[in-house]
Amino acid sequence: MKEKSGFTGSRGRLNRALRCLVAAAVALGAVQFAHAKTQLLVYTALEDEAMKPYKDAFEKANPDIEIRWVRDSTGAVTAKLLAEKNNPRADVVLGLAASSLTLLDLQGMLMPYAPKGFDSLTRKYSDANTPPRWVGMDVWGATVCYNRVEAEKRHLPKPTSWEDLTRPVYKGMIVMPSPVSSGTGYLDVTSWLQTFGTDKGWKYMDELDKNVAQYVHSGSKPCTLAGTGEFPIGISFEFRGHELQAQGAPIDLIFPKEGLGWDMEATGIMKTTKQPEAAKKLADFMASKEANEITAQWWAIVAYPGVAKKLSGIPDNYPELLVKNDFAWSAKNRDAILGDWQKRYGNKEQK
Question: For the whole model, what pTM was predicted?
């Protein structure tokens, strides 16, 4: 009887211990669940160095939300989003070209949303619909990065216009981004077509192509290559040129007198997001003065008035140099333009 009683007592103690363990596990699970963060999948074409400041500032203000980035060039992000149209993954698109976001909107993929504080932003830098489908962050424009040391070695004159770049003296001396993969390359091509007219625009690119050594897959890389002297001239944008100048690279930034193609980095919410409230909080943050102050570290024109700072190498009349840009036209004609461009010049694209 003692043996049986001892067994029963041990079993009782074991059952109580198991119940305690189960209760503790349930409690721990409840705590973990309570502290689980909402994850936002954010597709972006931001430059690498810009991603961390936005993420850190947003997550500090919203500790219950975590940004998970998927980063690539503008063309690659745009293509990925279109390919996923029937099975979308992204919650938010941030730092993508306005021309690409306009294309997504034409496909019915973006949620109309006016973020908190939207009325404080410069209205022309966001989608014209009410409420907007995308909200601008900053303007980036075409810039020619010119390595004065390498140019002197090769006896190359300093260009002042787009037309100058077609001169035979620059044969093999120029590198520029491919419009297929790069938003900067696409704004170059569409601005030439809009500024010069369709026929003259393609004729201009025919002549320019004779002097282009290679079309690369990044908008910033041509300026980087000019900075290192691998090529004396890179068609790029002001962000990278300003940054390289600050690092001591022997480059001048040239803003061609015919005018500059440009686009907007912007934010849009995917209509299919499963986290709409968290996505709206991110859109609210990107429209805030705080986020625009982060943006102003690199860009001469930002959406929040009075926040932009004078950046070295960027002319005071920079906004006046931007050509008229029809985002809807660029979006609607994207496939046709890229198809023509690839037939004409795709043999020089970086492999």
Answer: 0.83
